Amino acid sequence: MLFVAQKSKSNTKVGVKEIAKAIDSPEPFIAKILQDLAKNGLVLSAKGPTGGFYLDKAGMKNSLADIIIFIDGDKLFSGCGLGLKTCSEKKPCPIHDEFVSIRKHIKTMMQNAKLGDYNTALELGERYLKR
Description:
elongated; 131 residues; mainly alpha; 8 helices; Arc Repressor Mutant, subunit A; two-stranded antiparallel sheet
């Protein structure tokens, strides 16, 4: 989504192949995620020879938390640091107390991180999306 946001800044639509190559990720994986995101309005798509995926001004304001929650649910923000199903205040895992504050920090950071916020750093080569 960050790559799509970067390209959308210059009114460019991008296809699955270009996205997959740019971020070094499998095409079928990218296609499935983008299809689901488009169905739910988190990314826009246009068909045809000049089509592809893109974000409008409203889409640029979506947070990374919005995308994470859509794809993976809220387990990153509410789940156990060790991945246990039964971790809670009453039955904590060994890292529960420390992880609660880390989890809150991650959630706040991701909610404040808007898709359009990273375009300049990516364009200047200060940040990277490829593995």
